[in-house]
Amino acid sequence: MSRTYETFVERLHELADLSHAQGLMSWDQETYMPPRGAAMRARAMGTLAGLYHERLIAPELVSLVADLKNAELTGDAAVNVREIDRQQSRSLKLPKELVVELSQTESLGHEAWIEARKKSDFALFQPWLEKIVALKKEVAERVGYEGAMYNALLDEYEPYARAEEIAPVFAQLKEQLVPLVEQITATGQYPVRGVLDQEYPIEQQELLGQQVLADMGFDMEAGRLDLAVHPFCAGTSRDDVRLTTRYSADWLPGSLFGTIHEAGHGLYEQGLPADAIGTPAGESISLGIHESQSRLWENMVGRSKAFWTHYLPKLRALFPQQLSAVDLDAFYAAVNQVEPSLIRVEADEVTYNLHILLRFELECDLIEGRVAVAELPAAWNERMEQYLGIRPPNDALGVLQDTHWSCGLLGYFPTYTLGNLYAAQFFHQAHQDLPDLEAQIAQGELRPLKTWLNEKIHARGSRATASELVEEVTGAKLSADYFISYLWEKFGSLYGLSR
Ligand code: ZN
């Protein structure tokens, strides 16, 4: 290996070490930091973020990248140069004043959003969102884009994805989802969810979560599970992955499915390639692929009949009073109830993506100037009615419900639906490669699936882009067909519907 590349890798390791410190500090902030620690923590994290930025665009690293771009690189070397070049050129194109103005606007905008949501008054947030959208458009203009301006924003979360490619896939999904939701709603079947919102003592919920984590193969020697108000998965490297969850004593699904979801993210992190640790090749490729791992485990495994064939008896042993009279069919129906609802984070598998498609369409419209910020609440409510047949009674339950836009996260929402689509496509392939998969899950043997995901997806790090990875693993381009078939198979039989 050339001396130039060795020096380049040394610099990458230093960048990774700075990220390591940032990761640990932000995990601590969400879990154990006492309230008064906030001010100094914000300062320390700001300093680290500044150091990272300085290091990333340091003249030495810029010229190393320039030299290496001219060399004939292959394998991880090519991936590392490609990724650092992408991050570096993005950073170099953004003047410091713009970065500072955006960050200040986002933090003030977020405060305004909290107040606006509390009072359900969009007008309080409107001027801030207008400013955020204007600044984001300036960012897009400066970093540059091909095709839609939205691509410049999307690239931050789903590198190399393009609105022109995902919009038709999403449109196909919507075309299928809207009538499916209508048909399910028309059955008037609402399984009794009372079984889920009884008293479930937290100590037993913890035992259950630990059991499932162990069965999934999450390595507690390279990870932890702690409590957080808003659960997430973070960490410092593949060898130190921090999961969080929260328990509610009167609502079983919250912690159970939340823990499985975060563990899906955690398995991806723990499965990243050891031989590329500390460099971009050893990192996850995109938020969409990350979310595919959590959704596959949470929904396709965790809400499956096979899974509950094994776990319901265990659950009954932990909660005999609550569940002795509940059979498998009733429990399975309860954890898969479909009902159009106003709040995205509480939505079921069938309606969830319609919440995302609405946001994606509105984001594109905002960025391309087809909808003005002032028109958002009305546009939101209209689409809710069209897609889900319900209309928010106020803005707190409508356009103001998510924190994302107030934090400047435009281009982020589509990664949730991409995650669901990737998950269904991967899970379909897993069934082809592992013919006994259903039987294994029904016996609580989750390791074969974990190993398959490790080999096919996790160990690839960012050596393939998200769309390359999907094609490499499944032999087909991203398509909504797999997810739609999955929904029909599962919910068609639950609701007695045929296609
Ligand atoms: Zn997630």
Summarize this, please?
The chain is mainly alpha-helical and 499 residues long. Helices cover 64% and strands 3% of the residues.
Shape: globular
**Cofactors and ligands:** zinc ion
Beta-sheet strand percentage? under 5%
What does the main sheet amount to? 3 strands, mixed
Structural class call reads mainly alpha
What is the CA-based Rg, rounded? 23 Å
How many distinct beta strands? 3
Please, how many helices? 21
As a percent range, the share of helical residues equals 55-70%
Question: What's the average pLDDT?
Answer: 95
Q: What is the helix/strand order?
A: HHHHHHHHHEEEHHHHHHHHHHHH
Cα distance, first to last residue? 57 Å
Strand order of the largest sheet: 1-3-2
Question: How does the SSE layout of this entry go?
Answer:
Elements lengths: L2 H29 L6 H19 L2 H12 L4 H19 L2 H24 L2 H22 L6 H5 L8 H25 L14 H15 L6 E5 L5 E5 L2 E6 L6 H19 L16 H15 L3 H14 L1 H4 L4 H7 L17 H16 L8 H13 L25 H20 L3 H6 L4 H10 L9 H9 L6 H15 L4
What do you see in this structure?
Helix 8 packs parallel to helix 21 (481-495). The chain is mostly helical and 499 residues long. The longest helix is centred in the N-terminal third of the chain and has 29 residues, at 3-31. Helices cover 64% and strands 3% of the residues. A three-stranded mixed beta sheet has the order 1-3-2. Residues 261, 265, 291, 294 line the site of zinc ion.
